[in-house]
Amino acid sequence: MSTETVFTIGRQFGSGGRKVGKTLAEKLGIPFYDKELIAISARDSGLSEELFANADEKATSSIFYSLVMGNYPMASGALGVTEMPLNDQLFLIQSKTIKRLASLGPCVIVGRCADYILREQENVTNIFIHAKLADRVKRAIDVYGIAAGKAEDVCLKTDKQRANFYNYYSDRKWGMCRTYDLSLDSGMLGIEGCADLIIHFDKLSTAHKGLPI
Amino acid sequence: MSTETVFTIGRQFGSGGRKVGKTLAEKLGIPFYDKELIAISARDSGLSEELFANADEKATSSIFYSLVMGNYPMASGALGVTEMPLNDQLFLIQSKTIKRLASLGPCVIVGRCADYILREQENVTNIFIHAKLADRVKRAIDVYGIAAGKAEDVCLKTDKQRANFYNYYSDRKWGMCRTYDLSLDSGMLGIEGCADLIIHFDKLSTAHKGLPI
To answer: CA-CA distance, B123 to B125, in Å (whole number)?
Structure first.
C-alpha cells in the first residue's frame, strides 16, 4: 500500500492519537513527526530544543506570562519597534519546519496546528482522534502511567491547552467535525483499527479526487 | 455483508448525508428512516402528519413562537397546570417511535437527535456527514435545485436550525467530533465512498467490541 498523502493528526489526550499516527506511518512506510518536531525545529533555527519544548503546543497565554518571559511587546523609544511574543516566534519557526517536511513527501504529523499550517498544500488529509472520557482516563492510567486520582484532570486540562493553542494560531475550531476530513472514536476501533480505517479512507479519497460529493 | 448495528446520521445541509444513509441502508439491506419518521410518528400517535412536518427538527424556539402556536405555558388558575410546548410534546412522541424502530433491529436513522435518544441502547453507531461550504453550495444548486443566489444562505440557515434543535433536546453539541463515533467529509469520498467507509468502520468496530483503546 503506497500513498501520496500528508496526514495531520489532532487528538484528545488519552485517545491514543499519537500511537494511531505512528502505526499509520509504519504501515505506510512514511516518516512520523510528533515530539521529533522539537529537535528538527531547533536544528533548523539554531535555537535551543528547550525553548521549543517549553512552548510546545502552548498559546501565548496572557500578558502576565509574556511579562514573566520578558517578551511582552513594549514601546521601544523612538524606533517604536515592538517584539513578537516568544511563543509566536517559535510557532512561526516550527511552521516553516512543518512546511519543509511536508514538501518532501508523504508523512504523518501529530498536533501543532499542522492541518492549518498546510492549508494551501495539496494532498493533505486532516484527522482527529477522540474517545469517551472513561476510555481515555483508563488509557492514561494503564498505558501512560498517570496516577488514578489525577488522570481525568490531566485529560481535561491537556485538551483545554491544545484547544487554546489551536484556536489561537488558526481560524478554525479544535475538535469540530468540519475542521477535519475524518474524525474517529478510537475506543470503537482500537489503535490498529483506526490506522486501518485511515488507510481505507486514503484509498477511497484518492479514487474520488476532483469529483463532486 | 450483515450488521447488528443501528446507524444514526447527523449531517450538514448539502453534504449528501441523507443519500449516504440511504445508500448505506441499501448496501446492508436494512430499513432507512428520514422523512419516513413523520408518517410513522403520526400513525403511532394518532396525530396529523402536518403537525409533525411543521415541527420537524425545529426546537421550541421562542416565547413569541409559542404564543403564536398557542401553547405557551400559562398559569392555569387554581390548578396551576402548565402545558408542555407543542414541539416538545411532538419530540417526545417521535422519540418513542425512534426507540421502537431501533429496538426492531439494524436500521439507519437520519437526524432528529436519534443518537441522543438511543444513548442507552447497545450497538448504535453515530455518524456525522459534513463537507466544505463550496461543495455543499454546489450540491444544493446542482442536485437539490436551489437557486444559485440562495444556496449558501439555505446551507447556513438550515445548519443553524439543526444545531439549535439538537442542542436544545440533547446535552451534546451538534457538529463536535466527540458527539459522534465517526465524522466524514463527503467531498473527500463521495456518497458511495462514505457508505463504503462506514461499512468498513462497522466491520472493524464489531471486531473490537469490548476491548480498550
So the answer is: 7
- Residue A189 contacts B where some CB pair is shorter than 8 Å: yes
- Any alpha helices (H) in B127-185, and if so which ranges? 133-142, 151-169
Which residue among A185, A208, A212 places its CB closest to the CB of B193?
A: A208
Task: Decide: B8 and B118 in contact? Cβ < 8 Å.
Answer: yes
Distance CA A5, CA A15 (A): 23
Q: What is the pLDDT of residues B86-121, one digit of tens each?
A: 888 899 999 999 999 999 999 999 999 999 999 999
ipTM for the predicted complex comes to 0.90
For chain A, domain boundaries: 6-207
Grid cell digits, residue A122: 495539496
Rounded CA gap, B101 and B46, in Å? 17
For residues A114 and A174, the answer to whether their CB atoms sit within 8 Å is no
* CA distances from residue B136 to A77, A201, B139, B142 in whole angstroms, order as listed: 52, 20, 5, 10
Residue A189: which of B131, B185, B208 has the nearest Cβ? Answer: B208
User: Given pLDDT bands bounded at 50, 70 and 90, which one contains residue B164?
Assistant: very high
* DSSP class of B117: H
Residues in chain A with CB shorter than 8 Å from the CB of B204 are 188-189, 193, 196-197
Contact between residue A8 and residue A114 where contact means Cβ atoms under 8 Å apart: yes
* pTM (two decimals): 0.90
Give yes or no for A196 touching B (CB within 8 A).
yes
Shortest distance between the Cα of B131 and any Cα of chain A, in A, equals 7
pLDDT tens-digit readout, B58-86: 887 555 555 555 554 444 433 334 568 88
Chain B residues close to A171, C-beta within 8 Å: none
Q: Which three cell numbers stand for residue B50?
A: 402536518
Determine the CATH number of domain A6-207: 3.40.50.300
Residue with cell 441502508: B25
pLDDT in tens, B118-130: 999 999 999 999 9
**Chain A closest CA to B182's CA: distance in Å?**
5
Record: contact A176-B177, CB cut-off 8 A:
yes
Centre a 10 Å sphere on the Cβ of residue B200 and count the other Cβ atoms it contains: 18
Pair A144, A155: CB distance under 8 Å: no
Distance CA A93, CA A75 (A): 24
From residue B155, alpha-carbon distances to A17, A56, A171 in Å are 32, 37, 20
Adjacent-strand bridge partners of A7: A108, A125
Architecture of domain B6-57+86-208: 3-Layer(aba) Sandwich (3.40)
